[in-house]
Design a protein that fits this description.
Helix Hairpins, elongated, EC 2.7.13.3, about 50% helix, about 20% strand, ATP binding
Amino acid sequence: MLARPLSLLALQMLGAFAGWWAGHWLGREHCAWWGGWFATMVWVVVDTVRARNVIDRLRAGRGLIHANPAQGSGPGGMWGDVLDRIVRCLRVQEQEIAECQSRLEHFLAAFQASPNGVVLLDVQQRIDWCNQRACVHFGLDAQRDIGQAISHLVRDPEFLTFLTDAHSGRELVMPARAQASQHPISLSVQAYPYAQGKWLLLSRDVTTDRRSQAMRREFLANVAHEIRTPLTVLSGFVETLQTLEPNKAERQRCLVWMEKQTLRMRHLVEDLLVLSSLEEQSVPTTRTRNDVRSLLDQVVADAHALSAGMGEEGKEAHQIDCIASAPVYLEGNTQELLSAMGNLVGNAVRYTPAGGSITVSAVLQDDGTLEFAVRDTGYGIAAEHIPRLTERFYRVDRGRSRSQGGTGLGLAIVAQIAHRHGATLGIDSTVGKGSTFKLVFPANLVYRGQDFHRSYNV
C-alpha cells in the first residue's frame, strides 16, 4: 500500500535535488521546486501510460484471460498487480461459468434421455425448452417453437382448459398430436410450478397402461361371466332337487348336468392357473430334450379318446393321421409342449364335424426349424377373427365353443408357451374348408438324429 506514495516521494526528492544542483551551477533560485514539479509530471505520465496499458489489456477480453504470462511483460508496478488480480478473478469467474454450463448441459441431457416429455414454460407459458419426447407427444419443433406460446401450438380444448387451471394440480389425459404416430396414443399431462411463475410440463405415454386396464376389466368381466353361467345352471338344478321330487331318471339327469358344469368350472380354473404360471416367467424353468415322436404319440392318443367320446357307440368320429420326421428331439419343457400341442389337436377334434379328417405333423425344415402342424377339415374361421384368436376368452362362435367344452383360454395358453420357447404360431383358415395351425420351433432347440420319414395311420 505504501509503495506507490513512497515511489512518488522518492522521485520528487530526486527531482528537487537535481533542480537544486542545476540551480547552484547556473546561479538561479527556485530550481529545486521546478525539479520536484518536473519529477511529479514524469511520474504522472508514466503512471498514465501504465493505466492505459491496463485498460487496453482489459479490453482484450478472453484473449487476456487465456494469454500466457510468459509471452509478454505486463505494465509492472501497482497497475501490473491490479491487472494480475483482475485476470485471476476473471479466470475464476470463467471457470465457474464453464462448470455451471456443464451442469446445465448434463441436466438437459438427462431431460432429453427421459422417457417422458418435458417442456419448460416461462411466466407467459411460452416454451423455453423441450425435449425430443415432448416434440413427439405434442407435435413440436425443438428449434422453431422456442419462445412460442404453447397454447398457440397445441389447440386441444381440454389442454387449453388444463393450462388455465394448471394450479389445481390435476392430471389431464389427452390424445397425442395426429402427426406424432400412426397409432392412437394417450398422454397423461401434468404441470408443476417452479421459479416464481414458471411451469414444468410433463407428458407420459399411458396408452399401454390404459390398454392393460381395459384388458383387465374385460378379463374380470369374462371370468365372472364364465363362472356365473355354470353356477346359474347348478343353482337351478339344486333348486329343482330341493323343491321337486324327481324320479330316479330325472335325478340322474340333473346330476349329470351338474357334473358337466362342475367340470367346466374346474377346467376354467385350471386353465387360468396355467396361464398365470406361464405369464410369471418369460422362459421355462426346466428344459429337457424330448423325442418328438413320443410327444406326437401322446397328443394323438388323447385326440383318439376325445374323438371316440364324440362318436356313436364309442366309435371314433374322425380320421386322424400322423406324419413325423424322425428321429428328432425338441428341447423344452415337456408339460408345456404337450399342453400346446394337445390344445391345438383338441381344438381340431372339437371343431371338426363327425366324418372329417385331422392330420398332425412334425416335420424338420431345411433351415433346421421344426414345424408342428395340425390340419383339419372343420368349420373354418373367417379372416377377421384370426388376429384375435389368441386373446383370452375370445370365441368365434360362443355357443358352439361352450357346447364343445371350451374355456376360451386354449389358444392364449398356446401363444404363451410358443413365446416362452421362441416359437411362432401361424394360423391359416378358410370358412367351410378347414384350418391349419402351425408351431415353428427355432433351430437352436431342434436336434436331429438319423433322417428318415414315417407316415402312418393311428
